Description:
single chain; alpha/beta; 19 helices; 15 strands; binds flavin-adenine dinucleotide
Amino acid sequence: MNVPSLSQPKIAEVVTNDLCIACGACVEVCPTKVIKPAYNEFRAAHEVRIDDLQACQSCTAQPCDSVCPSIRVDLPDLARRSMGLNVSDMSRQGPVTGVFLGYSQPHRDNGVSSSGGIVRLLIQTALTASTPVICLIKKEHGHGPAILRSVAELAKVPGSIYHGIGFLDAIPLLRSVDQPCYLVSTPCQLEGILKYAVDHEPALLDKIALKIGLICGWMYSDHSLHAFMTYKGIKGDFTDANYRGEDKVGLLKIRTGEGEHKFHRRVFAGRAERLDYAASFSSGANRLRCRLCQDHLNVLCDVAVGDAWLARKHEQKLSIIVTRTPAGLKILRSLEAAGSLHLESSGENDIIESQSEDLVEGQTARRFSRHLRSIGMATPEFVYAETTRQEPPPTLAEQAGFGIERLLRWLLRNKNYRLFRSVYLLRHLSRYHPWVGRLFRIPGKLFRLLKDRKTTALSA
Ligand SMILES: Cc1cc2nc3c(=O)[nH]c(=O)nc-3n(C[C@H](O)[C@H](O)[C@H](O)COP(=O)(O)OP(=O)(O)OC[C@H]3O[C@@H](n4cnc5c(N)ncnc54)[C@H](O)[C@@H]3O)c2cc1C
Ligand code: SF4
Ligand code: SF4
Ligand code: SF4
């Protein structure tokens, strides 16, 4: 790992450590314009690159560091300054004005939407009223943010895309809209945009009429798809991949120059196919920032939408919707009154059931962060009101698990996809067969043995 010198901005380390989520905040704030969008082949992800580190030597304020959401996000402060909320006690669930389960029949059943088609309905409502919308769309090569102005453009909007997203254009797009618009984004994208806006261009805040937030558990590097394609013998570069729509869980559709390949995401032809899918889309293939993320519920938006995976709902395509402001609640109620949205009351227990307590509370994220910091790596700091809460230090078994996850990530980046799958399988088996777990402890024991010998030799 390259540790930046004192004169280097911290974002250099953010990028090296796979923490950049390409929000674009640093690009906007850099006075010398040396930060450029970049696709990193090693990490197989969109991020930024500092083209001329010499320029940073004379940049005393280093404003890129203060806007970067992968360095520090003070959520109550941002909520106060961007939403005008008097948030003195922001819990992990964030500000809440209502919690619902819901769907929009035509949008849910259109073969594209991810869960209840709520986001699509909100976009359509805005466009019908001639309110522009900034959201991710399908582009000629991949996906990226764009301004939509007409209902016809709704066809460009994909369901959830879990890999290869750069959101760097969002701030310039926001600057260019001539009237307040709706903005659809994941939590980290919104954090970057708001961090930049509150400190450097507050006029942008007035350009956002409604913030529609996706609840977001993870994002993959493109290595996920490369690995899966290797296992399935799919040749050529992928031009596009989709994960949602068509059935309640969604089909994985991979398009290459040679055609389209479809895979069910829950029903597999056999154990080998299950392993191919499970390994490629496992947590070890997530962007590292996602494994450290503590804002999955999108606490800074007006309306947050996610999947309502609730036992009593039997995997129906249904959204869980958390309104965070009176404006968010008002628009939902008006769509319900107009008959275009089916809503039922829900509550915080359903948020936890659908997302897991671990994700909502950020428990593993905090322990993983602590582990990484103990080996000298920088991790993002998430400030909630209850900053005093301390996660117990990771146990030895957990530390070993985090170590294996780092190994998995390293194998992926080196395109050692087959070995990656084998290590994934061994790790999986070790949960059920203690002897496999012991295998994993051998390298650690050897290391300690060699270290002890060296210490004894030195002190002799
Ligand atoms: C990366 C990612 C991870 C997610 N993880 C979870 C999770 O752990 N738990 C959960 O409950 N829900 C998660 N979601 C949200 C869920 O998948 C649905 O997006 C949400 O339920 C809305 O569904 P919908 O049918 O109302 O919207 P849709 O009609 O499917 O509209 C989706 C909207 O999301 C936008 N979009 C798609 N992908 C991206 C992206 N990568 N970045 C920015 N915008 C994007 C599209 O432009 C569109 O506006 C995730 C979404 C994403 C993008
Ligand atoms: S330190 Fe200054 S010049 Fe260097 S990238 Fe950051 S903002 Fe730009
Ligand atoms: S500000 Fe955004 S784009 Fe810049 S380094 Fe941080 S996460 Fe990446
Ligand atoms: S999990 Fe967190 S860091 Fe990862 S894409 Fe979602 S909001 Fe961003």
